[in-house]
Design brief:
This is Alpha/beta fold hydrolase. Keywords: Hydrolase, Signal. InterPro entries: AB_hydrolase_fold. There is one protein chain. The chain contains 19 helices and 18 strands. With 571 residues, the protein is α/β, with parallel strands linked by helices. The chain has a seven-stranded mixed β-sheet. The chain has a seven-stranded mixed β-sheet with strand order 12-14-13-15-16-17-18, sandwiched between helices. Strands 5-11 form a two-stranded antiparallel sheet. The radius of gyration is 31 Å and the shape is elongated.
């Protein structure tokens, strides 16, 4: 054999060997491969070392699939290492497990969302066991996961309430459920809940003959993760799910259209829960004002959600209603929405959540809150009618509506009110050129007023003359006319005070240079109701009062004191 032939064969053999080694390397890091090597029986320290090796390799892999697989291997091994007996190793392992889990979720979601369901599923060519732990029923079995820290928090003005810890905070989102009546109390934009995710192996062993596990856990229901003898507080982000809801909401635009007769907000009116119902937590029900929507409560709701103590004690409910009708009709609408919600949530009427309810109302919402806690009087009826109710003729439906609008009692279970920039004695703006324009638009498409007008037509002389002709004719009564200080019915209903035992607080705005003092829409004399448990005046215009930092701090203080004050009023 010639030297040239021999050298050629040696070179060919070396090239073949190199190719085989390269093929082996690619197979080692192939996304569909299980974790290479035999890790059965590894000590916690060795598992941490192997996890660190995978973390170092991951950024240098050939493609996204290989990188995701490397991060997966790192996350599982690092979680195994969290049983370490040395505190420094425990901390290092938990930190690395969180880092690798986050990188894996980031790779798998590709900057959008990761869609998962409970049970086995294939991700990146690899079988993964997805486990939902203590997730709320409202999310169902299929979720969209989005990294919480990827949200800008623009709608919440950059304010994010989160706590560090083990795991990766995400927003767990799902379409509105359809399987039960309670689904009607969730926002139509979808269900958004906080969750914390991480990777781990099958419990109790340092080997990986079984599929890796992707855990999605509710950090509020189960805030601690136990590994061996160690307990790890979960990381959580309670603001991100609310931000997601607000980003998808159309309510900002619909609120104004609801004032001038638009039907869209009327179709989605009702009481809506920001989180799953808890029969042990006190409801804080927020009622927006004229031409507005629950968006006005973004900062305040976020502050309550982000306070660990208040979040543990309270659940936030938002009222959505069309703001074009007169005050008494709006009160009736809101009462119906409350009745509907309680019938679904607590049909037996004995849940602890039924007692100690807090209402917070902005602008006209504060007036509605006061009327919900007041008792109607004969003077109210006489301001509108010249004959007793039992002498009126009309359909049963029309008469029943009339009875509910003018004959009411304090709503059971409410014992604290917070009025924010609320025109308890009307607003002169309702009678100026802007108010007159709003009147011309707002009175249209009010079904309740159509019924009351039919009663007026069927009972000549039974309705006070001032409500039939002139400025206040019954066909043109609206939310705006209700706020004119000398409107006949409102002149009476503004005298109706909260029932005994119901505490109330005034938070009002006063702008420099306004004479008399006013927030630009509501005079201070109208926004400050005598007999309040507390009164705060802030330097803010009418629409900014609910967002004012001092106003928000005052509400938080009221809620912290609420249980003490409620107990003092018990017999």
């Amino acid at each position: 054999m010639s030297c040239r032939t021999q050298c050629s064969r040696i070179c060919s053999g070396l090239l073949l060997l190199a190719a085989l080694l390269l093929l082996h390397a690619c197979t080692t890091f192939a996304p569909s491969a299980r974790m290479p090597g035999n890790y059965s029986g590894l000590s916690a320290k060795d598992a941490l070392h192997k996890a660190q090796e995978w973390a170092a390799r991951a950024p240098n892999q050939m493609d996204d699939g290989m990188r995701a697989d490397a991060w997966l291997n790192c996350g599982v091994l690092a979680h195994d290492a969290m049983v370490a007996t040395q505190e420094a190793d425990e901390i290092a392992a938990a930190s690395l497990a969180t880092r690798c889990s986050r990188a894996y979720i980031e790779m798998m979601s590709q900057g959008t969302t990761l869609n998962v369901h409970a049970g086995q599923m294939t991700l990146n060519g690899r079988i993964i066991e997805v486990q939902f732990r203590r997730l709320p029923d409202s999310l169902g079995d299929h979720l969209h996961l989005e990294l919480a820290d990827g949200l800008t928090m623009q709608v919440l003005d950059g304010v994010r309430h989160r706590q560090p810890g083990f795991g990766v905070p995400v927003v767990a989102a799902a379409p509105p459920c359809m399987h039960s009546a309670i689904c009607t109390l969730y926002p139509p934009e979808g269900v958004f809940r906080p969750a914390t995710v991480w990777l781990e192996g099958e419990p109790g062993a340092l080997h990986h003959d079984e599929e890796p596990v992707l855990v999605v856990q509710n950090p509020t229901a189960q805030p601690v993760h136990a590994v061996g003898n160690a307990n790890y507080q979960l990381a959580e982000d309670l603001s991100a799910p609310y931000e997601q809801l607000l980003e998808r909401s159309k309510l900002r635009r619909l609120g104004w259209w609801g004032l001038i007769g638009g039907q869209a907000i009327g179709r989605r009116s009702g009481l809506f829960l920001l989180e799953d119902y808890d029969p042990t937590k006190t409801p804080v029900i927020m009622i927006h004002g004229l031409g507005s929507s629950p968006i006005i409560w973004a900062r305040l709701s976020n502050a309550i959600l982000g306070d660990p103590d208040l979040n543990r004690r309270y659940q936030i409910w938002h009222m959505v209603y069309q703001t074009n009708a007169p005050l008494l009709v709006e009160r009736y609408r809101v009462q119906r929405y409350l009745d509907t919600a309680w019938k679904i949530l607590d049909p037996a009427g004995n849940a602890p959540a039924r007692q100690g309810v807090v209402l917070i109302g902005h602008s006209m919402g504060g007036v509605i809150a006061r009327l919900l806690c007041a008792q109607s009087t004969p003077a109210l009826w006489n301001a509108a009618f010249t004959v007793p109710f039992d002498r009126l003729h009309g359909s049963a439906e029309d008469l029943a509506l009339l009875k509910n609008v003018f004959d009411f009692k304090p709503y059971a279970g409410i014992d604290e009110l917070v009025f924010m920039a609320s025109p308890q004695h009307g607003s002169p703006v309702a009678g100026d050129w802007f108010g007159r324009l709003a009147q011309d638009l707002a009175w249209r498409h009010i079904p309740e007023m159509d019924r009351l007008e039919r009663i007026s037509d069927e009972n000549p002389g039974a309705v006070q003359a001032g409500l039939i002709s002139g400025t206040y004719r019954i066909s043109h009564l609206s939310s705006v006319t209700s706020l004119i200080p000398d409107e006949p019915v409102s002149a009476v209903d503004e005298t109706l005070m909260p029932a005994a035992g119901v505490r109330y607080h005034n938070i009002a705005g006063s702008l420099p240079g306004e004479h008399p003092p006013s927030d630009g829409y509501v005079p201070l004399s109208s926004a400050v109701l005598p007999g309040a448990a507390s009164t705060l005046i802030v330097d803010a215009d009418h629409h900014s009062v609910p967002r004012d930092p001092k106003a928000i701090a005052a509400v938080l203080a009221i809620l912290r004191q609420h249980d003490v004050s409620s107990a003092a009023n018990l017999p």
